[in-house]
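Quick start: what a row looks like.
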Amino acid sequence: MVEGGTNPPEDRKTPDLIDIADLEYTTEGVSILRGISVTASEKRIGIVGRNGSGKSTLARVLCGLIPPSAGRVRIAGIDIARDRKQAIRTVGMLFQNPDHQIIFPTVEEEIGFGLIQLGFSKPEAHQHTRDILGRFGKTHWAETAIEHLSQGQRHLVCLMAVLAMQPKVIILDEPYSGLDIPTTRQLARYLDQVDAALVHISHDPVTLAGYDRVLWMEGGQIEMDGPAAPTLAAFVARMEQLGEDDDLAHLPG
């Protein structure tokens, strides 16, 4: 203690944005994820891997849709599996298929629902919904029926609904799947402007080029973790090798 003064406050370390320790996930006796430990605070994180590598399962564990069988998952210091109320304020998810996410008939109702869940009054939710629509130049969409929107437009509605809740982290599970090139580029531009940290799940290395960090998943485990360029290069090399070596003759016709 400094003479004549007071004890200085203890240093309080800001929690990592993502803190995963010894994560395991098993269902019906099958191990899907095992031995995953990651700490990260980068703003743009990619997760790449083949179909069936565990990427989408990891995405669902990260946002609390399914609890881990063992281990710990914290997002911005929040235990996602144990504190669901704080979890929905902290992490959002953009699904691969927007129709698996949308539950209301109109754009305004869909965006406003999450805000009501957070405790906003109906007038407050209405105003925040109009604000987010205005931010994207889509105020004229408010009363539009979801069924009249294209796939890409539905993706954008889901993104606006997530952003309205102001999460610290947004999980993107193959967000460009099924979209044509112009729509993919438009959605990518919107995502580039997002302030929240993004965790982008993809089997396509091109969509993750330029990210701060990439995790390569293989067989439910982390095969490689590092800067985007070398990690994606190693992934592509392995995939090309498998493309030469894989024997598909055993598959049924």
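That is the whole record. Residues 48 and 187 are 19 Å apart (CA to CA). The chain is about 35% helix and 25% strand.
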